[in-house]
C-alpha cells in the first residue's frame, strides 16, 4: 500500500511496465517472507491492515513485528487459508456455448464488489469454499497463538516458547502452523546464552526482528 513510479522497459519486440518505490521493495520482501519464513500464502503489512474496516481486520492474524532492510518496525499479518482442503473438479469438456455467459457472471461479480453495501469480511463466512479453508483455524487456536505472540514481542520468550510449542501442532495431524514455527525457530537461534539454559530474549530486545 503506497506510491510507486511506473516506467516502461522496452525492446524492439516487447514493452513491459516496471515500478520503483520503497513500497515495491517492501512488497517483494513480504512475498519472500511469506514463502520462506512464515509458510503462508497471504501476507500483509501493518500499513495495509490499518486501511481496512474493523470487521475485515479480524480476518488477519498478526504473526510478527519486523524491520525490513533497516526500515521502521511494522507488524506483519497473514490470512489463514488451508487451500489444500479444496478439491478442484476437472472441466467436463469444452464450454464454448457457455463461455460468454460465464464471462458475464464474472463481470457482474466484479461490479457487485463496488456496491456501497458490499462487505469483504462477510465473504469469509458466506462463501462455502472460503469458510472451509478457514475452518481449521479455531478461536481457541487463534487465542492461544496471540498469547504466545504477545509474550514473544514483550520479551517473555520462555513463556512464548511454552505456548507456541502447543500451538504449532493444534491444526491437526501432519499439519503444523508456519508462523508458530517461524517464531520458535527465530527465538531458538537468537536467545541469550546463559549458563542455566534459561530461554531468554537477547539483551536490548525491542520487540522486533530485522529482515533483509
Order of helices and strands: EEHEHHEEHHHHHHE
Structural class comes to alpha+beta
Give the overall shape: globular
Mean pLDDT over the full residue set: 89
How many E-type strands? 6
> Helix tally?
9
Describe this structure in words.
The chain has 212 residues and is an alpha+beta fold. It is 44% helix and 16% strand. It is built from nine helices and six strands. The protein has helices spanning 22-38, 46-49, 54-57, 99-112, 120-126, 128-134, 139-154, 157-167, 178-190, and strands spanning 5-10, 15-20, 43-45, 60-68, 74-79, 209-211. The protein has a four-stranded mixed sheet with strand order 3-5-4-6. A two-stranded antiparallel sheet has the order 1-2. β1 (5-10) and β2 (15-20) form a beta hairpin. α5 (120-126) packs across α6 (128-134). The two termini are 19 Å apart.
Task: Summarize the entry for a quick read.
This protein is an alpha+beta fold.
List keywords for this structure.
two-stranded antiparallel sheet; 4-stranded mixed sheet; 6 strands; alpha+beta; 16% strand; 212 residues
Helix-strand layout with pairing:
Layout (H helix, E strand, L loop, with lengths): L4 E6 L4 E6 L1 H17 L4 E3 H4 L4 H4 L2 E9 L5 E6 L19 H14 L7 H7 L1 H7 L4 H16 L2 H11 L10 H13 L18 E3 L1
Parallel strand pairs: 4-6
Antiparallel strand pairs: 1-2, 3-5, 4-5
